[in-house]
Design a protein that fits this description.
Pfam families: TauE. This protein has 13 helices and no strands. The protein is mainly α.
């Protein structure tokens, strides 16, 4: 990779990491939206592998009460695995444009209505079955579309977690989603060939996450909510645009 392309990619991952550090998500979306400006799409996608997986792990282990989060989200995570394995939907490599558009519209709609004050009610005593059900749906849609956030993010937001706990829960959930997606796709020669470049992008991504986390600590709960939901809307709009652009 030429030095200019490497520096450009590093700056993109710093920016993407900042978004993830503030809201707990959005690194792949920001990176894949900007990297193709100078890099081939295949290389751009392969650069996401290590930063996406390892920043999600790092995000989780830096969160408070990791053990408590694992116990509480065990049903959701098990559901993600079962949903991915048993999904009747076509693999992401052959997913229809309509599927991606519907997912993007659903995500955008949820972000907008939540921004004006609505969100899923707390599951309460129904959490024991609501979590696994949300996980099954998330796992199935993950392998079908490559989108992790429906319905896992609305469900996690309904649990009443504080900022730090929510960010950690997102990191844990997205880690499992990333792994099941990779298993569903198999090992790509392109990803393997660019593994070193992908690993080198981890540093800029972590730097961006550190900056974003510092900024998050200065945000009020209201401002964090606005940033979080604004990122959801951005993810939804981007999913729709990507689907339409691929036709």
């Amino acid at each position: 990779m030429p030095v200019s392309a490497f520096l450009f990619a590093a700056l993109v991952f710093v920016l993407a990491g900042m978004v993830k550090g503030i809201t707990g998500m959005g690194l792949p979306t920001v990176a894949i939206a900007l990297l193709p400006i100078l890099l081939p799409t295949g290389l751009a996608a392969s650069l996401l592998v290590m930063p996406s997986l390892l920043t999600n792990i790092w995000q989780f282990v830096r969160s408070p009460r990791c053990t408590a989060l694992i116990k509480r989200l065990a049903g959701l995570l098990a559901g993600v695995v079962f949903g991915a394995v048993l999904s009747p939907l076509p693999n992401v490599s052959s997913a229809s444009t309509q599927t991606l558009v519907l997912l993007g519209l659903a995500l955008t709609f949820y972000g907008v209505v939540a921004l004006v004050g609505w969100r899923l009610p707390h599951p309460g005593r129904h959490e024991w079955w609501a979590g696994p059900l949300a996980g099954v749906a998330t796992g199935a849609l993950t392998v079908a579309s490559g989108v992790f956030v429906v319905p896992s993010v609305p469900y996690l937001q309904s649990l009443g977690l504080d900022k730090a706990e929510l960010v950690g829960a997102l990191g844990l959930t997205f880690t499992v989603c990333t792994v099941v997606l990779w298993f569903s796709l198999g090992v790509s020669p392109t990803l393997s060939a660019n593994a070193l470049w992908s690993l080198l992008m981890l540093g800029p991504a972590l730097l961006g996450m550190w900056i974003g986390a510092a900024l998050r600590g200065r945000l009020s709960d209201l401002m964090f909510k606005r940033c979080f939901l604004g990122t959801l809307i951005m993810l939804g709009v981007y999913t729709v645009m990507r689907a339409i652009g691929s036709t």
